[in-house]
Design a protein that fits this description.
alpha/beta, Rossmann fold, five-stranded parallel beta sheet, two-stranded antiparallel sheet, 7 strands, binds thiamine diphosphate, binds magnesium ion
């Protein structure tokens, strides 16, 4: 079996017939359709990361419906190619990541151990936010995860601050090793909020090393993207600030990876920020409390056929980089890892009631 074969650079979208809906039409005429070249080891790593994201979320749904997890829980199924594609193109524990309430998989991709993420969802002391945050507020200083944020758009200025810090340390404080890039993840609906525009302006003004990663999944709860925004092509809004903008097939991890690599390279070279609009889809309702009755069956089926995990599997097999048995073995390993983190979280201690106000102030 080959150790280092390029997986094709041609866009998958061009050969796809039967596209329906505006979002789908965009996929068929993507401006940027270049895809990353990966060797066997990287291909397996991408598959592993996406599988962990998928299986972890499936387990969350199971735990939620069994009454083990409380509050609002927003799952990421279908969008894995974005988290894996972007974070996999960055340096873990060096670059910075900022998420939304749909944050479990970003945390896992950033390297936060699954045990810590699951514990947090169960409100346990062993959680990455010590059980005080829950599903929407994952945080890890060690893994440079700046947080999940429940208010939409709230994370964007925080991410901007991290990008500013990196630039300031280098240019004002003379630390030549300071070259960290920040990725801010947020949704299509969030791009209609003020923070998005304010932060784009400042990022471009100061040429900050930041990627504004828009996960355009077509919907903001029950509001269709095309009905809520002046120009549905969000990447074009970068142009108003003189900033680089790219759109990419967010169901294709190799395309996301290639676009992210370009943006990270620009950012690290001091050439400033990028808006990276990833066209994607969530396979489940907005949250686990959403019966998901608004979206058309035809639309769901269209996107199910573009499942990013199956697409990567097809690519890796077609390039003869891995065998199907190897991929099944990875899934088995991941299932064991996910079960282990559930067992760990179920048996972990609750935060002590006497420490209710601990961790509110920075001293702790
Ligand atoms: C400031 C603010 N306004 C309104 C809400 C309610 N709200 C929660 S999720 C959401 C939709 C966000 O959609 P999008 O940005 O596309 O993200 P997605 O859920 O699709 O990942 C809204 C409006 C909120 N959380 N914060
Ligand atoms: Mg959305």
């Amino acid at each position: 079996m080959s150790q280092d074969i390029a997986v094709g650079t041609e866009s998958r979208t061009s050969s796809q017939g039967g596209l329906v809906g505006a979002h789908a039409e965009r996929l068929s005429s993507l401006v940027t359709a270049q895809r990353a070249t990966v060797d066997r080891a990287t291909g397996l790593e991408l598959y592993r990361d996406m599988t962990l994201g998928r299986r972890f979320e499936d387990k969350c749904a199971e735990m939620y419906y069994r009454g083990k997890m409380f509050g609002f829980v927003h799952l990421y199924n279908g969008q894995e190619a974005v988290s894996t594609g972007v974070i996999g193109a960055m340096k873990r524990q060096h670059d910075w990541f900022c998420s939304t309430y749909r944050d479990h998989v970003h945390a896992l991709s950033a390297g936060v151990p699954a045990r810590e993420v699951m514990s947090e969802l169960f409100g346990k002391e062993t959680g990455c936010s010590k059980g005080r945050g829950g599903s929407m507020h994952l945080f890890s200083k060690e893994h440079h995860l700046l947080g999940g944020f429940a208010f939409i758009g709230e994370g964007i200025p925080v991410a901007l601050g991290a990008a500013f810090t990196s630039r300031y340390k280098r240019d004002a404080l003379g630390d030549s090793s300071s070259n960290a890039v920040t990725a801010a993840f947020f949704g299509d609906g969030t791009c209609n909020n003020g923070q998005f525009f304010e932060c784009l302006n400042m990022a471009q003004l100061w040429k900050l090393p930041i990627l504004f990663v828009v996960e355009n999944n077509k919907w903001a709860i029950g509001m269709a993207h095309d009905r809520a925004t002046s120009d549905p092509e969000i990447w074009r809004k970068a142009g108003a600030f003189g900033m680089a903008g790219e759109e990419v097939d967010g169901m294709d991890v190799l395309a996301v990876r290639a676009a992210a690599q370009r943006a990270v390279e620009r950012a690290r070279a001091g050439e400033g920020p990028t808006v990276l609009e990833c066209l994607t889809y969530r396979f489940r309702g907005h949250s686990l409390a959403d019966p998901d009755e608004l979206r058309a069956e035809e639309e769901k089926q269209f996107w199910a056929k573009r499942d990013p995990l199956k697409a990567l599997e097809r690519d890796l097999l077609a390039a003869n980089l891995v065998s199907a048995d190897e991929l099944r073995a990875i899934e088995k390993e991941i299932d064991a890892e996910v079960q282990d983190c559930v067992d760990f979280a179920l048996n972990a201690p609750e935060p002590d009631g006497s420490e209710l106000t601990r961790y509110i102030w920075a001293d702790d």
